[in-house]
Amino acid sequence: MFSSLRIQIIQPCTARCKWCGTYKKNPLFRKLQERGVADQVHDFYLDAVARFQPESLYVSGGEPLLLKGIGTYMAQLAKHVSRRIFLFTSFQFSAQVRERLDLEGMPWDKVILTHTTAGFDEEEWLDMTQGFPFDLYIDNIRKLGALPWRKQFKFILNHEFLQTEMSRFGRLISPDSSYHLSLKLMNNQAGDFGAKEIKKTREAVLDLLENGVQDLPKELSIETKITGEEAIEGFIAGDKGASCPYRNGPLELRFAFHRGNEKSAKLKYRFCPHFPPSKHYIFKTGRDNIDDIVVAYKLKKWHSWCAKCRLKLYVPKKKANP
């Protein structure tokens, strides 16, 4: 039914990125693993993927690469995914941890190791990651990049020195044809979805969307189509989100961890990536039925949330006539 699914693995993350507070859930994630609730969540994901048979699956965390049996789990998921699995990583772990990753059984031909950069400037990197060694980060990329999966790296469109970052990536990583680069509007998972940063960089981003990014490294495979462009254009034209592709077909079902105890977990789910964090449905493992998700989608009550779409922040306010 849904062409893509997103799931969040219950696995502690060793990164301390400023823009993402997932690491604050590490103590809870460990408790959920000890009590078997994490397994309950991961089994539900298997059921959901088997039910909806997506073309694409996006797997985030925590740090899913650190999950015991991650290779085997990806293989189980891959049976029900027709095209590809995007497996997200921060690349922020020690060399010793990297060498102990449990990758046996990994469906290499279907998995794309995926990463969103904080910036390819060492000073900026150290600030944004609260001190993770830049040299180790680069070494992790090189070592894991040598494995036979494809790799996708996402760069942030509203970074001032985007072209420089991408050129530096090319020099430091020397990516081959198994690497693919793409652009993302921004990377800020704060409670306001980075509203201040969006407004501050809005004109520059709109210019890049209209005219493209100049002087990109010619040797790199780069996708310049940005998720959300159609919706932004529609909002500017005054259609109140009607042209957004997420409204016009079952494109995506997104799950994220919400709460958990010794018996079960509550997951948030929604059908569009651009709603603010407060807008979601709840699924409780061991209680709710997967059919409830289908009903929620078809009732379309979530269309009312489009009024809070963060992409509206990219639309300049109309100036009053003098």
Descriptive account of the structure:
The protein has 322 residues and is of the alpha/beta class. It has a single domain, classed as TIM Barrel, CATH 3.20.20. The protein has 10 helices and 10 strands. It has helices at 26-34, 37-52, 70-78, 95-99, 122-128, 134-145, 162-173, 195-211, 229-237, 291-299; strands at residues 4-8, 56-60, 84-88, 111-116, 150-156, 179-184, 222-223, 252-260, 265-270, 281-284. β2 (56-60), α3 and β3 (84-88) form a beta-alpha-beta unit. The termini are far apart. The mean pLDDT is 90.
Task: Give the helices and strands as they follow along the chain.
Answer: EHHEHEHEHHEHEHEHEEEH
Looking at the structure, what is the overall shape? globular
Put simply, the count of helices is 10
Tally of DSSP β-strands: 10
Distance between the termini: 51 Å
Q: What is the CATH architecture descriptor?
A: Alpha-Beta Barrel
Oligomer: single chain
Biggest pleated-sheet summary: 10 strands, mixed
Quick one: CATH class? Alpha Beta
Contiguous low-pLDDT stretches (5 residues minimum) are: none
Summarize the topology.
Layout: E1 4-8, H1 26-34, H2 37-52, E2 56-60, H3 70-78, E3 84-88, H4 95-99, E4 111-116, H5 122-128, H6 134-145, E5 150-156, H7 162-173, E6 179-184, H8 195-211, E7 222-223, H9 229-237, E8 252-260, E9 265-270, E10 281-284, H10 291-299
Parallel strand pairs: 1-2, 1-8, 2-3, 3-4, 4-5, 5-6, 6-7
Antiparallel strand pairs: 8-9, 9-10
